[in-house]
Write a structure and sequence with these properties.
Largest interface: A-B, 42 and 45 residues
CATH class of the largest domain in chain A: Alpha Beta
CATH superfamily of chain B: Thiamin diphosphate (ThDP)-binding fold, Pyr/PP domains
Largest sheet of chain A: 7 strands, mixed
Oligomer: heterodimer
Number of helices of chain B: 11
Number of domains of chain B: 1
CATH topology of chain B: Rossmann fold
Order of helices and strands of chain A: EHEHEHEHHEHEHEEEEHEEHEHEHH
Strand order of the largest sheet of chain A: 3-2-4-5-7-6-12
Helix content of chain B: 40-55%
CATH topology of the largest domain in chain A: Rossmann fold
Distance between the termini of chain A: 42 Å
Helix content of chain A: 25-40%
Number of helices of chain A: 12
Strand order of the largest sheet of chain B: 1-2-3-7-6
Radius of gyration of chain B: 19 Å
Structural class of chain B: alpha/beta
CATH superfamily of the largest domain in chain A: Thiamin diphosphate (ThDP)-binding fold, Pyr/PP domains
Order of helices and strands of chain B: HHEHHHEHEEEHEHEHHH
Radius of gyration of chain A: 19 Å
Strand content of chain A: 15-25%
Distance between the termini of chain B: 52 Å
Shape of chain B: globular
Number of domains of chain A: 2
Number of strands of chain A: 14
Chain lengths: 323, 322
């Protein structure tokens, strides 16, 4: 392990994949200057303008362009600065690339990656703070990666680039500015394998993306009160490691899902429904969701603090569930 | 330019094949075949004129009105008919149907059910060809209605910036479904929009297969020499309704006189008259061509009918690679 800035660390993953496979190339707004979060730093100087392509602000056509390249022998990666902007490309994502292989009767494959940021808690207002995992979760044909740290972000990115299916990586921008210990050797993190971040017997706490760190804080605080929380990080929503989640609930008999997206029709809604279908008899109390109440994200940090789940609100909800 | 005799005869045969194939589709549809069919009758010269100048490994990206493009590119009639009849031997194994025809064997990388959405995908194939240095090009067919989508403008700009080897072919049939071009476009000469993206644009008589061929040949030369994208606007006309869900041939929004006027300029009749006038073909040879077409279509129908049905369980596979 060595200490490293996280954005440079993730940029290293892109570089390794582009070096490994010359079919991999990158498109996005500002990638030649290193990307708006600095996660493409140094790539332009290393690979040049053909493989590191600045684009106009044309999300719809750039994503469509990636699809065209993917079905003709390339492996494109598209950077979309905020997931809020990815909505501009919904036709290409939903109607085109997610259905292309299926519509071809399995004759074609679509090896492409969309990297986009979700995040909150930074006073960026209603159009730069959304977590739209659930929006994409709805549609068949798209793999969804939700990293929770720089270390798994890099490993998952490398797996996504090597996957022959369309993958959207919804990455929190919250850890980009920080540094920490990272592995020195090359590694990949498999898609579809959840991670138990902390074992416990009293409740299963499934946290999505940056909510994992809040969940860990809450679990630590509750440990002091004698409550043992099992924290699960799904890492990918599609494919979803249902086996691990269901087994955990069978053990703890309780389930709380925490996410940074809207509560209605959220990731938690879907995961809880699926677990209840498989393990209804194991529940000792109703499963619960912590998410954004059904309002847009406000600008003011005071108001944003109220709508976002936090370690405090997670701990409070768990105490309630264990009463 | 005068088109060489053999090429013109070839294009005449292809146009006739498309026309007769679609007439067969109509017959089968009326007898109960499932699907939503947007016939291209009247517009054959655009598909055939353009695809005749392409190489087998060039890519085409088509629209909801895509059967003619697929046939013009060398498509497999049997696989297409089997697709429509929901057979295992269908080109999309029953998961695509008439609006999503995909056949990589001839570079047909997709008809498309969403107006304008095929344009950026074609650009991506062109970018891929450029990055791989393969010398291939991509063609995006689209109608007059597509030229008003946001993605059309985004894509023209992208092709202009990156000088992509892509040919944009507008089939202006004067109607965006029922809305006439005079009501949906601020500009009637759609090709002139290309200049705004630094792309050469040309207006072409889309009822004259020789004119389309000549324009496409020149455009493809320009593109293959590294000159970047070209747009052709081919003015043409569909004789049928927007789809066969409208069996009136569009009588809600146009007149029988208007259709008759365009039928008078029919691309197949025009090509036939020219071939006869030049003494390049005899009536016996014309009959033989028609017989060959009819035979190929009958064989396609027989092949489809004798193929096994798709099993319903196939619905649950092919979302992802294994």
């Amino acid at each position: 392990m060595k200490n490293m800035n996280y954005r440079a660390f993730v940029a290293g993953g892109l570089r390794e994949e582009m070096e490994r496979d010359e079919r991999v190339f990158l498109m996005g707004q500002g990638v030649q200057a290193g990307g708006s979060y600095g996660t493409c730093e140094g790539l332009f100087n290393h690979f040049g303008p053909e493989r590191v392509r600045d684009t106009p602000i044309s999300e719809d056509s750039v994503v469509g362009c990636a699809l065209g390249a993917a079905i003709t022998g390339m492996r494109p990666i598209v950077e979309i600065l905020y997931c809020d902007f990815a909505l501009r490309a919904m036709d290409q994502i939903v109607n085109q690339l997610a259905k292309y292989r299926y519509m071809s009767g399995g004759r074609m494959s679509v090896p492409l990656v969309i990297r986009t940021a979700c995040g909150y808690g930074a006073s960026r207002g209603a159009q730069h703070s959304q977590s739209l995992e659930a929006t994409f979760f709805h549609f068949p044909g798209l793999k969804i990666v939700v990293p929770s740290s720089a270390v798994n972000a890099k490993g998952l990115l490398k797996s996504a680039v090597r996957d022959d299916n369309p993958v959207i990586i919804m990455e929190s921008f919250l850890f980009y500015g920080t540094s920490g210990p990272v592995p020195e050797e090359e590694y990949t993190t498999p898609l579809g394998k959840a991670e138990v971040k902390r074992e416990g017997k009293d409740i299963t706490l499934l946290a999505v993306s940056a909510m994992v760190s809040q969940a860990m804080k809450a679990a630590e605080a509750l440990a002091g009160e004698g409550i043992e929380v099992e924290v699960i990080d799904p890492l990918t929503l599609v494919p979803l490691d249902m086996e691990m989640i269901v087994n955990s609930v069978r053990k703890t008999n309780r389930l709380l899902v925490v996410e940074g997206g809207p509560k209605r029709g959220g990731v938690g809604s879907e995961i809880i429904s699926s677990v209840v279908e498989e393990a209804f008899d194991y529940f000792d109390c109703p499963p619960s969701r912590l998410a954004i109440p059904n309002v847009p994200i406000p600008f003011s940090s005071k108001m944003e603090g109220l709508v976002l789940p936090s370690s405090l609100s997670i701990a409070k909800e768990i105490r309630r569930m264990l009463e | 330019m005068e088109i060489p005799k053999e090429i013109l005869i070839g294009m005449y045969s292809k146009m006739l094949l498309i026309r007769l194939f679609e007439e067969k589709i109509l017959e089968l549809y009326r007898a109960g075949m499932k699907g939503l069919y947007h016939l291209t009758c009247g517009q054959e010269a655009v598909a055939v004129g353009v695809c005749t100048v392409l190489n087998p490994d060039d890519y085409i990206f088509s629209t909801h009105r895509g059967k003619g493009h697929y046939i013009a590119k060398g498509g497999d009639l049997k696989a297409m008919m089997a697709e429509f009849m929901e057979k295992q031997t269908g080109c999309n194994r029953g998961k695509g149907g008439p609006m999503h025809l995909i056949d990589p064997a001839v570079g047909m990388l997709g008809a498309n059910g969403i107006i304008g959405s095929n344009l950026p995908i074609a650009c991506g194939a062109a970018l891929s060809a450029k990055l791989r240095g393969s010398g291939q090009l991509a063609v995006a067919f689209f109608g007059d209605g597509a030229a008003n989508t946001g993605v059309w403008h985004e894509t023209m700009n992208l092709a202009g910036i990156w000088k992509l080897p892509v040919l944009f072919v507008c089939e202006n049939n004067f109607f965006q479904e029922s809305v006439p071009v005079s009501r949906h476009s601020s500009l009637q000469e759609l090709y002139s929009r290309a200049a705004g993206y630094h792309i050469p644009g040309y207006g072409v008589d889309g009822m004259d297969v020789s004119a389309v061929y000549a324009a496409a040949l020149e455009a493809v030369r320009h593109i293959r020499s590294g000159g970047g994208a070209v747009m052709l606007e081919c003015k043409t006309y569909r004789y049928h309704g927007h789809s066969e869900a409208d069996p009136t041939r569009g009588m809600r929004y146009r007149t029988g006189e208007e259709i008759a006027l365009w039928e008078g300029k029919d691309p197949i009749k025009q090509a036939k008259a020219y071939l006869l006038e030049k003494n390049w073909i005899t009536n016996a040879e014309l009959e033989a061509i028609e017989k060959t077409c009819t035979q190929a279509i009958d064989e396609a129908v027989a092949f489809a009918k004798s193929s096994p049905d798709v099993p319903a369980e196939w619905a649950l596979t092919d979302v992802f690679t294994d």
